[in-house]
Amino acid sequence: VSDAMIAIHNSLTMSFNPYEMNGGTVLGVSGEDFAIIASDTRLSEGYSIHSRDVPKVYKLTSNTVLGCSGFHGDVLTLVKQIEARQVFYQQTHGKKMSTASVAQMLSGMLYGKRFFPYYVNNILGGIDENGKGCVYSFDPVGSYEREAYRAGGSASSLLQPLLDNQIGLKNQEGDKKPLNKEQTIGLVKDVFISAAERDIYTGDAIELHIITKEGVEVQRIDVRRD
Question: Distance between CA 45 and CA 69 in Å, rounded?
Answer without folding.
Answer: 13
